[in-house]
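Model it.
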Amino acid sequence: MIFFRPMFSKALATVALLVLCASTQAGAKRPNIVVLLADDWGYSDVGAFGSEIQTPHLNQLAQRGMRFSNFHVSASCSPTRSMLLTGVDNHLNGVGNMRETIPQSHVGRDGYLSVLNQRVVTVASLLQDSGYRTYAAGKWHVGKEPHNLPPARGFDRSLVMGDSGSDNWETGKLYLDLTEKVYWYENGHEAQMPKTFYSSEFYINQTIGYLKADAKSDKPFFAYVAFQANHIPVQAPQSFIDKYKGRYNKGWDVLRQERRNKAIELGLMPANTPMAPLPSTHVAWDALSDTDQAYQARRMEVYAAMAEAMDHHIGRLLAHLKDSGEYDNTVFVFMSDNGAEASDPYALALGRWWLDQHYDRSMDRLGGPGAFSIIGPNWARAATAPLNTYKFFAGEGGIRVPLIISGVPNMAKATTPQIQTSLAHVNDIVPTLLDLAKVQHPGTTYKGQSIYPLTGHSLLPVITGAASRVRGPNEVLGYELSGNRALFKGDHKLLSNLPPVGDGQWHLYNIVQDPGETHDLQLAQPVLFHSMQADYAKWSKDNGVLEMPKGYDPIQQVIVNALVFVYWPRYQWHLLALLTALMVGLGWWWHQRLGRIKASS
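Modeled.
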């Protein structure tokens, strides 16, 4: 009889668990969840955050939800995506740096795989385990290994692009020569793609298709839609471009001021917020010729059109959910993966040579198939106004982005659209979604394997009105990417950006009063300044942050990594054959020379 007691106890526990699960399912219906991830949108690129760009559907979500005006991510694509999916700091989850910019001395080291490691579990897996149907469409960029593709990371149905980006009109066309080809995966296998598409339309089509295919299911759903808009190349349908003709003729200096003023008017920034200082490299609009002004204005017209086109297709998804009766039971999360992109691949000789073989830069073709456009640093400063810097850097313009959460049950009622001003972070999204779905995180073990626990906080208390801020005034939040560093504590931020944007030294700002990082407080608050440096040193050690090699330059590193990861594997046999031929030729020449020397002697 004693032998059977453990078995009986185990069976009883199993029955109790099944009853608990059944009672949960029988209770209030759990909400559907839709995560909409924009690519390279600056802080003020959404209408509800101060933009002139027409984003009515995102504005609609903001109107019935909450905007987070102090929300932070990583300054580049894959580190942010890794945290959005796992809720674990990117230095722990394996994506301490992006494959394109990682120093070769860091490659493969702990925390620097540039893909998700196996010590994290995704929110999709946890939702899937708890009875959600799960879908992914769009840019993936967290690993192409079998254990990292969507089916192994918790998605029932998926169609994703594996890497950093591609053309928005041609599915097989690289936007830069950074990978061997464009990798598309459908349900974990290489996908058969149509030759042409428009990326934002295609990803929404896939998502709606999944919802229709499973329309009879009584399970709630989780849909992750990761757009390419507005990653380079900036491209959009002509009908959207035409809407913005002439809108940007006054230039980036005027737009920057307009965006700052509108953000203040909307209550996202305090009154009299100082504008981030301009670097010496900034080009005044009035210094351009009429021809250059026209060309630059067209670039921004295309950028605005690409954003509006994405919003338009989001509207199609919202309409489908309304028609199917699911809209009122769906929570929407919209955010960008980092600040606006300022890079110019044409500034590099290798980039210019490659792009000229594959793309056209004519003004009348910008935005269309076969054309390559960017906005560059001057427009990027307007897109992140009134913040400092942009993508890749640790200034607020690189890591503070728009966040909208809409449709949360029991959301705190207010007579005006709600804005949350306290510090929030991308690692907060996973615990928020799990709370919404009434799913407990497994802690440090998942299916018998050791994993990292969540490092963020649920946002539900501030959304429902149970709390006024996400973090306590003395809690620290560290940040590092490619040697650009920050530490947040209360309303303050410790910041260090590498040259040429920064000086590599620490500076201190109150980012609530001074989000543009214009007034360094290190001399006025020396105790806080030094204590936060100590906090950063501890955070850095705890998270396995590696020191950057001397002389690190992200642009040069992209070239080096392209040569190592792409050109060497692609052409190694050609290069070895050439080297062999040279050695044989040299040997033959030396043999002939020795023969002539012997003959003459």
